[in-house]
Amino acid sequence: MVCLTGALKSDDTRVMSEALRLMGVQVDEPDDSTFVVTSSGHWQAPQHALFLGNAGTATRFLTAALANFEGDFVVDGDEYMRKRPIGPLVDALLRMGVEVSAPSGCPPVAV
Q1: Which UniProt keywords apply (predicted)?
Q2: pLDDT confidence of 11, banded at 50, 70, 90?
């Protein structure tokens, strides 16, 4: 369990929390500035893409983290995120032996 206090509640944290929930991670928000995150350590691949809006940091962190889990994941975003380069991260993951692709060099990213 991880407890984050003094956290900013924003669109970026909202989409990241929702993506984690879709993979079976428990994310509680007991007040306006706290997240309590609990996970079994096994994330489940959802039936559809994980939508992260225009949250660049969340997109990059989550893409890298998904390399540690089994299953097919797709990380996607809004029309603006789909124009933001993610090629360097994809290249680094490929060099580590991760099966990952982002044909346009921007999201969506399949891991």
Answers
A1: Transferase
A2: very high
DSSP label at residue 101: B
Q: In total, how many domains does the chain have?
A: 1
Residue 70 DSSP one-character state: S
CATH of the domain at 55: 3.65.10.10
- In 3-state terms, what secondary structure has residue 21? helix
Rg (CA), the chain: 14
Which pLDDT tens digit goes with each residue over 66-91? 999 999 999 999 999 999 999 999 99
The verdict on pTM exceeding 0.70 is: yes
In degrees and rounded to multiples of 5, residue 21 shows phi and psi of -60, -40
One-letter identity of residue 87: G
